[in-house]
Write a structure and sequence with these properties.
16% of the residues lie in helices and 42% in strands. With 103 residues, it is of the alpha+beta class.
Length: 103
């Protein structure tokens, strides 16, 4: 399974962070057993120490990287927390547009 790691300079409460994402890096990942979609834990064999944001296509969600733990010389464990605003930005925009629509 793949995930795309980024460096993000956006504020956490910003709805659309796409213009703030840089240094894209696609990486093979493994999910740690018994992890959820809101706070998954990933195990990877790549250097992403300068990254703070990740997109997991399987879940169609964006995540903040909250912690990186080195497991051995080759693997790291990455704790993530769902960025609800970015993950559901299209739905949020649609709701706001509908709420402000006046015929």
């Amino acid at each position: 399974m793949k995930a795309t790691f980024y460096s993000s300079s956006a504020e956490k409460n910003k709805l659309d962070k796409t213009v703030y994402l840089s240094e894209e890096q696609e990486v093979d990942i493994l999910l740690k057993e018994n992890c959820g979609m809101l706070t998954p834990t990933l195990i990877i064999s790549a250097n992403v120490l300068n990254k703070n944001y990740v997109y997991i296509p399987l879940f169609t969600r964006y995540y903040f990287i909250t912690n990186i733990t080195r497991l051995d010389n080759n693997r790291v464990e990455i704790a993530c927390k769902c960025d609800v605003l970015m993950s559901f930005k299209i739905s949020i925009h649609a709701l706001v547009k509908r709420a402000t629509y006046t015929p």
